[in-house]
Write a structure and sequence with these properties.
By secondary structure, the chain is of the alpha/beta class. The protein folds into two domains: 201 residues, Rossmann fold, CATH 3.40.50; 143 residues, Rossmann fold (3-Layer(aba) Sandwich). 40% of the residues lie in helices and 15% in strands. It is built from 14 helices and 13 strands. The strands form two sheets. It has a seven-stranded parallel beta sheet, sandwiched between helices. Strands 10-9-8-11-12-13 form a six-stranded parallel beta sheet. Helix 5 runs parallel beside helix 6 and helix 8 packs across helix 13. The longest helix has 18 residues. The radius of gyration is 23 Å and the shape is elongated.
Length: 404
């Protein structure tokens, strides 16, 4: 494609970078039509959101006949789950060996470059990018959410890593603004890869059809056994999520359940087993369980399907909200991170920040769901597909191999 003469000069895009030429020749010269990629992210930690990103990425790369290796905390499980080669993310020797056989290093997706819990995340993922470039492997900074980055060390490492990348795509405007402030160049804004996830919307629950969020159920009787109104809840540990705020949230949900005319079931959704389960189990003790109000703790492996059976969902985890939107379940955000606030703003959805959680009320929740906006996901799916087009261009995959 010819360069647009009206576009501002851009040294990085004005010529084909030497490392890209070398990588292209690497698999074409040998007659191998199947390029190889090495993927780095928060994979193998049993975090459902990140695993869904990896599933979308692997499925799309397989459809394009790409050889895949994943850096994982649990290589055996990752290899068995996705049918790919996986290596330990902390094994320097294995990472170096993989880089010598790789045509493209994919950093992402997800929120890898942040320092909320310290600078190590940015140092680790940034270090991998520098290592890939040391071996002349082109790098794509792929579909990431960036920030917060409050420390000078995290900012410096992120900026230096970004400048080493062949292509940069981020999933929201705030990430784009932060990237631009770090390197003086605005990246391409796409969308989270999980928008491309194919979900099977349940037609009905075993006990009956799903109820709409604003619809009152028939009075509860033993013989009628109406379908419970299912309220999904995603929580994660967070330093601001104190006991008094959890108590306020429980009081709100208890009051909302009491206002219903029929049975209510709280569906607790642990998106990361090691972090979320204990918190949700303790929270369940605060709920007023009775013959009419019940609680179900979903097994982590069943969370994906369970979201689709909810009538409403209160989500703290970023991808709990995305899954709710994919399933058509009305959602309400519990905001702890800028990425959650950005997601709610994009769809004009309501939420309450963890910092002000003691102010949450049944009236606010009922009003939010009673005036729930119409949701159109098509633009976000189209934006997300741009992430795949970037990979096709960098790997020079022929048009005949495209599946979208």
């Amino acid at each position: 494609m010819k360069k647009n003469s009206k576009a501002p000069p851009n040294k990085k895009n004005s010529q084909t970078p030497p490392q890209k030429q070398k990588a292209s020749k690497k698999f074409k010269k040998s007659g191998d039509l199947h390029p190889s990629v090495l993927i780095s992210g928060y994979y193998g930690f049993d975090n459902l959101g990140d695993e869904l990103i990896l599933k979308v990425l692997v499925d799309e790369l397989k459809a394009r006949q790409v050889n895949i290796t994943v850096l994982s905390q649990n290589p055996k499980k990752t290899a068995e789950t996705y049918g790919v080669k996986a290596i330990k993310r902390t094994s320097f020797i294995d990472v170096v060996d993989a880089l010598t056989r790789t045509n493209l290093f994919i950093s992402g997706g997800g929120g890898l470059f942040q320092d909320v819990t310290g600078p190590m995340s940015a140092l680790y993922y940034g270090g991998l990018i520098h290592l890939a470039r040391f071996f002349d492997v082109p790098v794509v900074f792929w579909a990431q959410g960036v920030g917060p980055l409050k420390g000078k060390l995290s900012q410096s490492m992120t900026a230096s890593a970004l400048k080493k990348c062949e292509k940069i795509t981020v999933r929201d405007e705030k990430s784009a603004a932060l990237v631009e402030s770090l390197m003086g160049q605005k990246p391409d804004i796409t969308a989270d890869p999980v928008w491309l996830l194919k979900v099977n919307k349940p037609k009905a629950l075993k006990s009956g059809a799903k109820q709409k969020p604003g619809r009152k159920l028939a009075p509860f009787t033993e013989s009628a056994a109406p379908t419970p109104w299912r309220v999904g809840l995603s929580l994660r540990p967070w330093h601001e999520l104190s006991a008094d705020k959890l108590e306020a949230l429980a009081d709100c949900l208890n009051a909302m359940a009491e206002q219903r005319d029929g049975p209510v079931q709280f569906i607790l959704l642990p998106f990361q087993k090691t972090e979320d389960t204990e918190l949700l189990e303790n929270f369940a003790k605060r709920l007023n369980v009775s013959r009419r109000i019940t609680v179900e703790m979903v097994a982590p492996m069943a969370v994906l399907e369970a979201v689709g059976t909810c009538d409403i969902l209160l989500g703290m985890r970023f991808h709990s909200l995305i899954l709710g939107l994919l399933y058509g379940v009305p959602v309400y955000g519990l905001t702890y991170d800028p990425k959650v606030a950005s997601l709610l703003a994009m769809f004009h959805l309501k939420g309450t920040s963890i910092a002000t959680l003691k102010t949450i009320s049944p009236d606010a929740l009922n009003a939010a769901f009673a005036h729930y906006p119409d949701i159109d996901l098509k633009p976000f799916r189209e934006q997300s597909r741009k992430n795949l087009k970037v990979l096709e261009q960098l790997l020079e995959i022929p048009e005949s191999k495209l599946v979208l």
